[in-house]
Write a structure and sequence with these properties.
Blueprint (H helix, E strand, L loop, with lengths): L2 H24 L10 E3 L1 H8 L3 H14 L2 E6 L6 E5 L1 H4 L7 H23 L32 H4 L15 E2 L5 E2 L9 H51 L7 H15 L7 H21 L9 H4 L11 H33 L8 H13 L4 H12 L9
Antiparallel strand pairs: 1-3, 2-3, 4-5
């Protein structure tokens, strides 16, 4: 593996470690419930000082090496989530010396076995014919008999014991019919081997897909629990600060909050979580206005998705809050443009811009808001300054 790929792996593990430290402050993490790392090519390219295209190639190589066990694309504007091999992350869990030596010996033994397998079936005879016939699946194996040789021993070359070839005789199946192609000399043994190899590849691919689905499900469950834990921590500090809750009630509240995230796809989890946090703040402000008469129900009741008078009802609150916030923003822009035009009119001739130019600038800025009534108010305020006091 190249040094640049190793540097990419180090940076990924470094930022993932920082992410896990923050996540561990919210919920206890183990090797079985590690959340996925959400990043993108631009972020990693800036850390490693390479191009985003190079980062894509490095990610593929790290997947082949087993350092990255999974990658899930979250959208063109959201990047992707990476699953890191937990064995690499367990830096504090050092292995015993005897256990490490045992694994090293097992690895060496596997290398020796693989080397012996590669050496089987080879001969010592020189390769005098180097034509590439790999494209021809029906090559005939022609037996050559040197009748002029002095003895059979002189005609024998190579390692005869390890030699093997396809049989040229017809192979009869159970029904008594020959198998293979008699005209071309293909006995069918080679095709059977290819079929077995293909079946093995299909089985391995199916196993890999099943493992990925299991990891994907585990990663999503971890993400949902992470967001639910974070939201509950916020709600507990803002809504239940002076309320005593048992451990059972808190666990029940977390289970309720997980149901709020289950219908959401992975790429929208972050936005929906921010939406829920805004609604919690609105509830806090609502109760703070009249704490003697207003209160929040217990978590198992308040966060029930089927309770229209609980957290479900705050959806309309947030909609009205955002509408009011947008209305105030537009009014502030309108007043700023009116003030800009009137201040320009009060300046001396040397410092004043063209009235028509400033008028067009203000009109263009207000027109971008998409509200025709605001333009009418601007025109009225410019023509009759006394109208300004009526715009509230």
């Amino acid at each position: 593996m190249k040094a640049s790929v190793l540097l990419t792996a180090k940076e990924i593990i470094r930022i993932y470690g920082a992410f896990l430290i923050k996540a561990n402050g919210i919920m206890e993490l183990t090797a079985e419930n590690l959340p996925a790392l959400k990043t993108n090519n631009s972020q990693l390219a800036g850390l490693v000082k390479v191009s985003p295209r190079t980062i894509q190639r490095h990610i593929i190589k790290l997947q082949e090496a087993g350092i990255i066990t999974g990658k899930e694309f979250c959208g063109s504007n959201s990047g992707y989530e990476l699953l890191i091999n937990p064995k690499i992350l367990l830096a504090r869990c050092r292995k015993d010396l005897l256990e490490a030596e045992k694994e090293l010996q097992e690895a060496k033994q596997k290398d020796l076995e693989n080397q012996s397998i590669k050496n089987e079936g080879t001969t010592n005879c020189p390769h005098t014919y180097t034509r590439n016939n790999s494209y021809n699946k029906n090559n005939l194996i022609i037996g050559v008999d040197n009748s002029n040789g002095s003895s059979p021993d002189q005609r024998r070359t190579g390692n005869q014991r390890n030699r093997s070839s396809l049989s040229l005789t017809e192979i009869l199946n159970k029904a008594g019919y020959p198998t293979g192609n008699i005209l071309t000399g293909n006995t069918g043994e080679k095709d059977a081997k290819i079929s077995n190899d293909t079946g093995e590849k299909v089985r391995k691919r199916a196993i890999n897909e099943q493992n990925w689905k299991q990891q994907d499900g585990s990663a999503r469950s971890t993400s949902l629990n992470f967001y639910a834990e974070s939201l509950w921590k916020l709600a507990k500090n803002l809504l239940y600060r002076d309320v005593f809750l048992t451990e059972f009630q808190e666990n029940q509240a977390k289970e309720m909050l997980v149901k709020w995230y289950e219908p959401v796809s992975d790429k929208f989890l972050s936005n929906v979580h921010q939406n829920y946090c805004e609604r919690v703040y609105l509830v806090r402000d609502f109760v703070a206005k009249d704490p003697e008469k207003r209160f929040v129900q217990l978590p198992y009741r308040y966060f029930d998705t089927n309770n229209p008078f609980g957290f479900t009802g705050t959806k309309k609150w947030l909609q009205k809050h955002l509408e009011r916030k947008e209305e105030v923003r537009k009014k502030l822009i309108l007043h700023a443009q009116i003030k800009k035009y009137l201040n320009n009119e009060k300046k001396t001739d040397s410092n004043r811009k063209s009235s028509l130019q400033v008028y067009r600038e203000c009109e263009t800025r207000i027109g971008k808001l998409g509200d025709q009534s605001l333009l009418h108010l601007f025109h009225a305020a410019v023509l009759k300054p006394e109208v300004i006091h009526q715009i509230r």
